[in-house]
């Protein structure tokens, strides 16, 4: 064999060896990659992440005392205890679930259908529309600052967000799902299984999604819906130029012993979280809604409803449990028409003692509306997901 052929064969062998080694190297390194989380690792605004990966609420009201830990009082009163301590991943996963119609029985209704960010986390309807276009009997309450509330639903029948959400999820008239179908649906979506494993790192990667995890993540998201930076809040914290002359006049009417608005809609949440029978009318032709009487089996609570927060009230028309008033002006005027004036003649309701006939002037009513609009703050409105793991369109 010539020297030239030996050199040629050696070169080819060396080249082949190099190609094989390069292939083996690429094969081994292709399996080494950096994992990119699907969920947000940062807390939402208004929360600070602790060393334990928990989102802890932060706001200026923390500098004030809260008498008896009730979170009711004057301008400089601390808030009641809030549901916080969730991880950023739990909150973000709850955001995806909140907007996903896959949580309903037929895949057409999400939590956001009745609690839309663009409508104050309500739906703009007198009473909400559920499954199969069923018209419900009450308006959808706003979810802003819901993590601070101790009574949920208009009739206060739930005391935790986990308990509350099971009502609409599994009501035939609302989202028309079942626990079994909900879990089966979520476990059939690979991306959701990956997300739940990320939000609950203590569980095995391929283990099934469980109901309590669904409840916890949606609770985490809802508890992050904080609205505490309105014009009123800046005024309350000492920047008195935040409100103009008309708004201050309205605040003075609101807090006066004549109007008595603040007796029930007490700062800083603008609710005392109690029940009140105010005698608001039902839509024409409908019987009286018994309210809290039914879940509590208490006749004194007939026609009683939970005092709603007035935060972002400008965004949540129409008003009252039945959506009977279309504007704030109509609503505040109701309180000037006489104690129990709208109560049906065959009803003997125990009207709340703060409801009377204050005889407010048109000027005072107009100023009240001016003030109520200072409670608007949507600074921390969360982002609606562009796409969902289910492949469905976000429902709002």
Helix content: 25-40%
Structural class estimated from helices and strands? mainly alpha
The CATH class of the largest domain turns out to be Mainly Alpha
Query: N-to-C SSE series?
Result: HEEHHHHHHHHHEHEHH
- Summarize the main sheet: 2 strands, antiparallel
CATH topology of the largest domain, anyone? Cytochrome Bc1 Complex, Chain D, domain 2
Low-pLDDT runs of 5+ residues are 27-33
Number of domains: 2
Per DSSP, what share of the residues sits in E-state strands of 2 or more residues? under 5%
CATH architectural group of the largest domain: Orthogonal Bundle
**Number of strand elements:** 4
Give the neighbour order of strands across the main sheet: 1-2
Anisotropy-based shape:
globular
Radius of gyration in whole Å, from Cα? 28 Å
Overall pLDDT score = 92
Number of helices: 13
Task: Give an overview of the whole structure.
The protein has helices spanning 3-29, 88-98, 111-114, 161-170, 179-187, 190-199, 211-223, 231-236, 245-255, 261-264, 293-296, 328-334, 362-372, and strands at residues 47-49, 55-57, 275-277, 304-306. The model is unreliable at 27-33 (pLDDT under 50). The chain folds into two domains: 47-223, Cytochrome Bc1 Complex, Chain D, domain 2; 231-375, Cytochrome Bc1 Complex, Chain D, domain 2, CATH 1.10.760.10. The chain is 32% helix and 3% strand. Strands 1-2 form a two-stranded antiparallel sheet. Strands 3-4 form a two-stranded antiparallel ribbon. The chain contains 13 helices and four strands. The chain is mostly helical.
């Amino acid at each position: 064999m010539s020297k030239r052929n030996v050199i040629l064969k050696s070169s080819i062998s060396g080249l082949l060896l190099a190609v094989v080694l390069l292939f083996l190297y690429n094969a081994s390194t292709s399996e080494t990659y950096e994992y990119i989380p699907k969920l947000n690792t940062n807390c939402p605004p208004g929360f600070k992440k602790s060393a334990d990966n928990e989102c802890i609420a932060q706001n200026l009201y923390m500098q004030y005392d809260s008498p008896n830990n009730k979170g009711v009082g004057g301008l400089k009163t601390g808030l009641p205890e809030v549901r916080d301590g969730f991880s950023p991943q739990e909150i973000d996963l709850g955001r995806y679930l909140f907007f996903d119609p896959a949580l309903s029985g037929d895949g057409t209704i999400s939590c956001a259908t009745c609690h839309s960010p663009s409508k104050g986390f309500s739906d703009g309807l007198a009473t909400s529309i559920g499954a199969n276009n069923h018209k419900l009997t009450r308006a959808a309450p706003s979810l802003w600052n819901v993590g601070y509330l101790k009574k949920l639903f208009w009739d206060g029948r739930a005391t935790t967000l986990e308990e509350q959400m099971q009502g609409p999820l599994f009501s035939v008239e609302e989202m028309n799902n079942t626990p079994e179908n909900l879990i089966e649906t979520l476990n059939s979506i690979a991306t959701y299984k990956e997300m739940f494993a990320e939000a609950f790192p203590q569980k095995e990667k391929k283990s099934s999604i469980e109901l309590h995890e669904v409840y916890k993540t949606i609770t985490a998201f809802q508890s992050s819906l904080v609205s505490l930076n309105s014009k009123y809040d800046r005024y309350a914290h000492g920047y008195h130029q935040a409100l103009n002359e008309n708004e201050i006049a309205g605040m003075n009417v609101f807090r006066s012993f004549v109007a008595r608005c603040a007796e029930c809609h007490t700062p800083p949440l603008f609710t005392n979280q109690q029940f009140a029978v105010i005698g608001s009318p039902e839509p024409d032709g409908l019987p009286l809604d018994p309210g809290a009487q039914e879940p509590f089996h208490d006749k004194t609570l007939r026609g009683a409803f939970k005092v709603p927060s007035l935060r972002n009230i400008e965004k949540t028309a129409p008003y009252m449990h039945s959506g009977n008033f279309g504007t704030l002006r109509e609503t505040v005027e109701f309180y000037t028409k006489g104690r129990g004036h709208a109560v049906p003649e065959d009803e003997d309701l125990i009207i709340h003692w703060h409801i009377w006939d204050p005889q407010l002037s048109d000027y005072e009513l107009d100023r009240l509306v001016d003030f109520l609009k200072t409670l608007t703050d949507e600074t921390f409105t969360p982002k609606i997901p562009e796409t969902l793991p289910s492949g469905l369109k976000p429902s709002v």
